[in-house]
């Protein structure tokens, strides 16, 4: 009789990997990462503090890798629900190209690496904020909120809102009111953005058992909440100008962008219950991406002009 | 043919190609990291990097 009875090796654990480097890159969620890089860069530039350009670039890289690491941890944990949603079924883990354990180790190593890098290159406040962001996204949002409450993306949205604050802290060593406003813009933008998606993808989320707002509170309530958040985003969007942190031109531009957001949300609010094509919801989803990019691009232009000493009205 | 040889895992062409692809990516990442740390050290420490009192 053998001492060890159990010798049935788990096939998956002993499989030789066929994962390409590109599959590991996909674990970092490059599209989310690009938004993180952009908003962190705006936070960093708008801080108006002297910084070596190379240090700035490496800080942004560390923030990007940290965001990517939290994406990999998210894909490790969510592989079961990703497999049943059309939008995510082809991700590296549910498709079998990368093993769950590989994604977990990859995410953990990059998390530790990015936080230490940012601490050494910039400062430990920025590094702590990055560590908190990774923890918030991977543990608080992914493991806890996402499958438990329809407020998942409202609270979880904080994770996506931190990058400009981290960029700001990387060069100043503190958290300024300006960076808190940039945080709020992304934080309040997240619910209407994801709920617009959830409206026309509610079947997907329902199959995966994720309690998104349309599946739990119904479409009518979701539409009202989208509209309320859109009004809040539009109001917060002009704050940098009102508080004298940005030019009046920025304020006018932000007000126009905000009015667009409210208008598209109004169209969603007026969308009839029997409309299954949901063109207004798709339009709002598209516009929300444009909104976030445009308002941060305007903040960046404003900050660059101020740095260059160009007077902008 | 010995028993030892039977125990070895023979990689398929696809597996070899994937391993090579990963190895190259890892090498590029490591070289990039070394270059970054070199310049960060120079920038952060500056001339004091040569200041080593006995």
UniProtKB/TrEMBL annotation, chain A:
Q: Name one GO biological process term.
A: heme O biosynthetic process
The record's section on Gene3D superfamilies has: UbiA prenyltransferase
| UniProt keyword Transferase, yes or no | yes
Is Membrane there in the keyword field? yes
Q: By its UniProt entry, which InterPro entries does this protein fall under?
A: Protohaem_IX_farnesylTrfase, UbiA_prenyltransferase, UbiA_prenylTrfase_CS, UbiA_sf
Q: Which Pfam families does the record match to this protein?
A: UbiA
The EC number(s) this enzyme carries: 2.5.1.141
Instruction: Using the record for this protein, list the coiled-coil segments as residue ranges, or answer none.
Output: none
Q: Which UniProt keywords apply?
A: Cell membrane, Heme biosynthesis, Membrane, Transferase, Transmembrane, Transmembrane helix
In what way does this protein cross or attach to the membrane? Multi-pass membrane protein
Q: Which reaction does it catalyse?
A: heme b + (2E,6E)-farnesyl diphosphate + H2O = Fe(II)-heme o + diphosphate
**Its pathway?**
Porphyrin-containing compound metabolism; heme O biosynthesis; heme O from protoheme: step 1/1
EC class of the enzyme, as a word: transferase
Q: Name one GO cellular component term.
A: plasma membrane
Segments passing through the bilayer: 32-49, 55-77, 98-118, 124-145, 152-175, 181-200, 226-243, 249-266, 287-310
Subcellular location(s): the record lists: Cell membrane
Function (record text): Converts heme B (protoheme IX) to heme O by substitution of the vinyl group on carbon 2 of heme B porphyrin ring with a hydroxyethyl farnesyl side group.
Could you tell me which HAMAP family the record lists for this protein? CyoE_CtaB
Q: Which NCBIfam families match?
A: cyoE_ctaB (TIGR01473), PRK04375.1-2 (NF003349)
> What family does the database annotate?
Belongs to the UbiA prenyltransferase family. Protoheme IX farnesyltransferase subfamily.
Give the note. Answer: Carbon 2 of the heme B porphyrin ring is defined according to the Fischer nomenclature.
Q: What is this protein called?
A: Protoheme IX farnesyltransferase
Q: Which organism is it from?
A: Neoaquamicrobium microcysteis
